[in-house]
Design a protein that fits this description.
The structure is a homodimer. Chain A is of the alpha/beta class. Chain A has a single domain, classed as 3-Layer(aba) Sandwich (Rossmann fold). Helices cover about 30% and strands about 35% of the residues of chain A. In chain A, strands 5-6-4-3-7-8-9 form a 7-stranded mixed β-sheet, with helices on both faces. In chain A, α2 packs across α3. The longest helix of chain A has 14 residues. Chain A is globular. The two termini of chain A are about 20 Å apart. The model of chain A has no long low-confidence stretch (mean pLDDT about 95). Chains A and B meet through α1, α2, α3 and β4 of A and α1, α2, α3 and β4 of B. Chains A, B: Pfam families: Pribosyltran. Chains A, B: Keywords: Cytoplasm, Glycosyltransferase, Purine salvage, Transferase. Chains A, B: Homodimer.
């Protein structure tokens, strides 16, 4: 996939030993950005999807453009304390510490088919927490779409094992 | 503009006396979200634009979908410490305290025409700081596009006075 060649690797970011996969160089490229959205749209062409949920903050970029392309509404999954109306939240463990994602109570209704979108899947903790919120509201997670998978971190396998149907446009080895 | 009827007002958020204009109800609506992007695209149809810069985080949603629609690349203007490569930053004053936005050094090149996008213009401090970053890199701010203007807070007037050409799809009185 030519998309991969537009992704920049930043060594030792945000800390020693981590190879950070930076999609800003891909987003910056008009053809690359268009290709990302069109490739995701093509993959989900025959799926019934009611709305797109994007995970803050890079998932907003990919998810919102995909929602526009597919003619769907967009729901932001945000970090704690960012959504103004009534929310539900889900806490999850990080390597060190914990984090929390939130969703507006009216963002998803019973039986709706929701496609979850983020830029990258690593250990999958955030995506699993976001999926749990959608399911708590009665929504069905049709799939989880990413630009990049880091399969060595096991997140996509974990999502697959939970029936969350991950799909990514490209993979990078290592962390 | 029917867009306005899809925006929810949350009284006293994030603090007493503030009427928060919440676009999540608009984004949630497939027709409303599509209309927002198409209305912005129509407004800028005859402008020469090289790329879209969206301000974190809600500006990512509107800006990325607009970039997709217009076939342009997308540049994220982020809060301090969020961008992985080399950045420039701009500090600006808030009502209480200060904040900072950052841009990758390679996000804009000399002479490029950039459209700045956010969901809402209030006092205009963030938009002015983001515009300053684009200009520091040699870019030209073609305009600043918003879904909502709060004209009583004077931000759009301030941007206009600075030659930053603000445009909004709808207005709300008060704060």
């Amino acid at each position: 996939m030519p998309i991969k060649s537009l992704i920049r690797t930043i060594p030792h970011y945000p800390k020693q030993g981590i190879q950070f996969r930076d999609i800003t160089t891909l987003l910056l490229d008009p053809v690359g950005f268009h290709l990302v959205i069109d490739a995701l749209a093509l993959h989900y062409k025959h799926h019934h999807i009611d709305k797109i949920a994007g995970i803050e903050a890079r998932g907003f970029i990919v998810g919102a453009a995909l929602a526009y392309k597919l003619g769907l509404g967009f729901v932001p999954v945000r970090k704690a304390g960012k959504l103004p109306a009534e929310t539900i939240g889900h806490d999850y463990a990080l390597e060190y510490g914990a984090d929390r994602v939130e969703l507006h109570l009216d963002a998803v209704t019973e039986g709706e088919q929701v496609l979850l979108v983020d830029d990258l899947i690593a250990t999958g903790g955030t995506a699993q927490a976001a999926a749990a919120l959608i399911q708590k509201l009665g929504g069905v997670v049709v799939g989880c779409a990413f630009v990049i998978d880091l399969p060595d971190l096991g997140g996509s396998q974990r999502l697959a094992d939970s029936g969350l149907k991950p799909f990514s446009l490209c993979e990078f080895e290592g962390n």
